[in-house]
Amino acid sequence: MNWKRVCAASDVPENTLKRFDIDGIAIVIANYGAGFQGFPPYCPHMEEPLADSGMLDGGILTCSKHLWQWDLRTGEKVGLAEKPLLCYDIKTEGDDVMADLEIELINEYDVEDDMDDDDFFGSD
Ligand code: FES
Fold it and tell me: What is the distance between the alpha carbons of residues 55 and 74, in angstroms, rounded to a whole number?
């Protein structure tokens, strides 16, 4: 374990997410109301930056690019998601949000997964 302070709890209002860079590791902290979750900054599908494209409501994180979803309360995939969201161990100490950054979590991407918006939404 290598617990690091990422931010103050008040830095990330409820139902929002924000990216931080701590000792060279990029991490997104999400406040889902009942707690905080922390994960790498890019969507495990096609590297969309989740701090910009992620939408959070009722504990469900949705990547707005192709609508993959994860339940931040359990870390489980929801709906269309085909890959898990890699999550850091997170805890709060007073007003501080802490993450175990001993190992940087890195998504693996399929090289043949080159679906673009036209493939997903149709092109007519
Ligand atoms: S890039 Fe996030 S769902 Fe496709």
Answer: 17
For a ligand 1 pocket test, name from 17, 42, 47, 48 the mutation site with the most ligand atoms within 8 angstroms of its C-beta.
48
DSSP state of 122: -
pLDDT grade, residue 75 (50/70/90)? confident
Beta carbon of 70 within 6 Å of any ligand 1 atom: no
User: pLDDT tens, 17-54?
Assistant: 999 999 999 999 999 999 999 999 999 999 999 999 99
- What's the predicted TM-score (pTM) here? 0.89
Residue 100 Cα to ligand 1 midpoint, Å, equals 25
All structural domains of the chain, each given as residue ranges with its CATH number in brackets, are: 3-104 (2.102.10.10)
Q: Does the Cβ of 63 fall within 6 Å of ligand 1?
A: yes
- 115 Cβ partners below 8 Å, 6+ apart? 46, 66
